[in-house]
Amino acid sequence: MMAVKQLVVAALQLPTLGMNATRLEFYLKQAHSRSADIMLLGEYVLNHFFKEFATMAPNMVKEQSRKHTELLKNLAIKYDIVFIAPIIVTKKDGYHKTIVKVTPKHTRYYEQQILLPYAHWNEKRFFANPVVPLKAPMSFTIKGFKVMVMAGFELHFDPFWQMVTHKKIDLVLLPTASTFGSHNRWREIIKTKAFLHGCFVLRANRLGEYSDNEVKWKFYGDTMLVSPEGEVEMMLEDKESMLIEVIERAEVLEHRKAWGFERELKQREISG
Questions:
Q1: What Cα–Cα distance (Å) separates residue 113 from each residue in 13, 99, 128?
Q2: pTM listed for this prediction
Q3: Contacts of 251 (CB under 8 A, 6+ apart)
């Protein structure tokens, strides 16, 4: 009988972390006691929200990222865990919005490819990420699970999900900074994408507030794990907390076999 492939996934729901490591390590001890393999953080947790950068010296942003990267490296080794966390990288041409993967042995970066372009939330103009043809997001294998990392806004674009299907991804990690009462829209999109593409989706959304021209931006949490059946298996509310769940690859395989979406497409592949 084949061994059941399981993965213990964790997501931290936090506002922006200060330079104090105590808070993060508190949660890491709990995660380690439950044998967590992966820890996902939301957007703008290791750094301040990008609109706050205007009041910060560039060196302060750079130092914040450096210290937090070193902290994650040390904690990854100490607790034998893989971190996936959005982080701002400072380069000669400006700030780059990235997601870092930190393991006990190495560090890799994925540079977000599509950024919000709206008047009230214009990351595309603020950050120096290049506008170039799309490529596959960061993916890796851990304990027999194929995992893909997708930036929150990238959720909305089908080419990324086509890559999920093409690469037979079992788990999508989705760090977000959702606000303005968009709870229901995000829940429904995530549930639908998980079902249609036959994968688990782990979403970590940040907490906290930002006031801009008398408008209050409230980041509401709603961190969740959604199954390939499109069901919310666990959800955090709007308080600082941590989600830890065990997922089984058999659930992914059963869903793909039962619904056969990919099988039907393969029989009708477009040529030429």
A1: 24, 11, 11
A2: 0.94
A3: 200, 227, 228, 229
